[in-house]
Design a protein that fits this description.
Length: 120
């Protein structure tokens, strides 16, 4: 008998989580790399952006294997850094990682190295 997920999975909601998480990562990373391009992105706005990003990642994590599958499907469709970032944040062992605590230089290096590799 197959195990039943305790969390109902709604594919269209999961897709929104994956899309938004990838987009918000890109916005966050660009805001940190090029603060002069968006002077309105102050600490308060950055912290709110991070809260939203974490919420979308948590939504995907709650869905377990379905969340990972959808994230991989998105990366196959759009092999961009944001989509790859989402996959990495859903890997086993990354459950407790928080974006604000990441070494962004290492994250960027990882994304540059792995981009274009769907099996990331």
């Amino acid at each position: 008998m197959a195990a039943v997920s305790a969390v109902p999975v709604l594919p269209h909601i999961l897709r929104q989580h994956a899309e938004q998480a990838a987009f918000l990562w890109t916005v966050y990373d660009q805001a940190l790399l090029h603060p002069e391009e968006n002077p309105e992105m102050d600490e308060l706005r950055l912290s709110r952006l991070l809260e939203r990003l974490e919420a979308h990642l948590d939504g995907l994590r709650l869905a377990g294997a379905e969340g990972m599958k959808l994230a991989r499907d998105r990366f196959a469709e759009y092999p961009e850094a944001g989509e790859l970032f989402v996959i990495r944040m859903l890997q086993p062992g990354a459950e407790r990682l928080r974006v604000a605590e990441l070494d962004l230089a290492k994250v960027r290096e990882y994304l540059a190295e792995k981009r274009g590799t769907p099996s990331a």
